[in-house]
Specification:
This protein folds into two domains: 15-209, Rossmann fold; 229-312, Roll (Methionyl-tRNA Fmet Formyltransferase, Chain A, domain 2), CATH 3.10.25.10. The longest helix is centred in the middle third of the chain and has 24 residues, at 173-196. The protein is α/β, with parallel strands linked by helices and 322 residues long. It has eight helices and 15 strands. The radius of gyration is 23 Å and the shape is elongated. (6S)-5,6,7,8-tetrahydrofolate binds at residues 121-124. Residues 18-191 form the Formyl transferase N-terminal domain.
Length: 322
C-alpha cells in the first residue's frame, strides 16, 4: 500500500535543515511538528565515541531517520559534488543550527530566502563556537538566542529576530543549553513564517559591540582556587556536565559540580576545605569567600552527591585542593 503523503504547512518555506548535536534536535523536531517541508537533513558524518570508539551517529541524524527525512552526511561541505546535490532539492531556504562547518557563498546564494541560523547568544555579543560557556564564565545574568541570515563571516550576518532569557544563579551549562535549544526552536519557526511572508527587515549588527566566544582551550576547565569565589562558581557551572571543572586533591583529579556561592568568608588559604554544610563541601576561594560544591567525582569513577562522596573519601577541614 502506498504511503500517504505528509501534509505540509504553506506558511513555512521549503527547507534544507543543517545541524548536528543535541542543540539542533528541538529545532528539527519543532519544524517537523509545525508541518515544514524539510526536504533534506544535512549533518556531520558518524564519529567514533566512548571508550570503545564505536561509530556513533549524530543526534540530528537519529531524529531525521525517525521522522523519515532523507539524511546526507558529507565530510566536507566544499567537496566536489556536495553543493550540487544539496541544491538539487530546490529548497527555498536553509535552516542551520550548530551544523559545524562554515558554509560557502554559493550555498547561501543557492537558496532564494537564504540561510537562517540559530545562535545561542544576543548578537553581536559572543560570536563564535562557545557562547553558552562564555556567558556563564563572564557572570552574565541575561542571554538569549538570535536568528540571523548567514553571510561569509563568523556570526556576522544581519539579525532577523532575538529573544532573551535570564541566566539564573543555579543555571549550569547543561540547563542553559537545553533552555536555549528550546527557545531557539520556537523562535526559528516563528521567524521562518514571518520571513517567508515578507514581514521582517534584517538588522545589521553593530560590529563595535561585538565580543567573541572562541572554542574552548584545553585546561580552561581547571579550577584556579586563587581566583575569587564567584569566578570559581562560574567555572564549575560553565563546564557542568561536560567536561567537568576539576581540581587536584592529594594528587588525584577531582571534578566538581553543582557549585554555589555562600554568604560568608573564612580565615584559611585558597582551596582550603573548611567543612560540610547545606549538602555541599565548603572550600575557600582566593578572596576567602566560601564555595559550596554539591557533587564531586574522582577520575574514573561516577559523579556523586558530596555527602555520599565524603563517606568513603574524607576531606577534613584544613586539607586543600591544588
Amino acid at each position: 500500500m502506498e504511503k500517504a503523503k505528509k501534509m505540509t504547512n504553506p506558511e513555512l518555506p521549503t527547507l534544507i535543515f543543517m545541524g548536528t548535536p543535541d542543540f539542533a534536535v528541538p529545532s528539527l523536531k519543532q519544524l517537523h511538528d509545525a508541518g515544514a517541508d524539510v526536504r533534506l537533513v544535512v549533518t556531520q558524518p558518524d564519529r567514533p565515541s566512548g571508550r570503545g570508539k564505536k561509530l556513533t551517529p549524530p543526534p540530528v541524524k537519529l531524529l531525521a531517520e525517525k521522522l523519515e527525512i532523507p539524511v546526507y552526511q558529507p565530510a566536507k561541505i566544499r567537496a566536489e559534488g556536495v553543493l550540487e546535490h544539496i541544491l538539487s532539492f530546490e529548497a527555498e531556504c536553509a535552516a542551520v543550527v550548530a551544523y559545524g562547518q562554515i558554509l560557502p557563498q554559493p550555498f547561501l546564494d543557492g537558496h532564494p530566502l537564504g540561510a537562517l541560523n540559530v545562535h545561542a547568544s544576543l548578537l553581536p555579543r559572543y560570536r563564535g563556537a562557545a557562547p553558552i560557556q562564555r556567558s556563564i564564565l563572564a557572570g552574565d545574568t541575561v542571554t538569549g538566542v538570535s536568528i540571523m541570515l548567514l553571510d561569509a563571516g563568523m556570526d556576522t550576518g544581519p539579525v532577523l529576530a532575538q529573544k532573551e532569557i535570564p541566566i539564573l544563579p543555579e543555571d549550569t551549562l547543561g540547563v542553559l543549553h537545553d533552555k536555549l535549544a528550546l527557545l531557539g526552536a520556537e523562535l526559528l519557526c516563528e521567524t521562518l513564517r514571518k520571513w517567508k511572508a515578507g514581514e521582517l527587515r534584517p538588522q545589521p549588527q553593530d560590529d563595535r559591540l561585538a565580543t567573541n566566544a572562541p572554542p574552548l582551550a584545553k585546561g580552561e576547565w581547571r579550577i584556579s582556587w586563587n581566583a575569587p569565589a564567584h569566578r570559581i562558581v562560574n567555572t564549575i557551572r560553565a563546564f557542568d556536565p561536560w567536561p567537568g571543572a576539576y581540581g587536584f586533591y592529594g594528587g588525584k583529579r577531582v571534578k566538581c559540580f553543582h557549585a554555589s556561592l555562600l554568604n560568608w568568608k573564612g580565615e584559611g588559604e585558597a582551596g582550603e576545605v573548611v567543612g560540610f554544610m547545606e549538602n555541599g563541601l565548603v572550600v575557600l576561594g582566593g578572596d576567602r569567600k566560601a564555595v559550596s560544591i554539591g557533587e564531586l567525582q574522582w577520575e574514573g569513577q561516577r559523579r556523586m552527591a558530596a555527602e555520599e562522596f565524603l563517606r568513603g573519601r574524607p576531606m577534613p577541614p584544613g586539607s586543600r585542593f591544588d
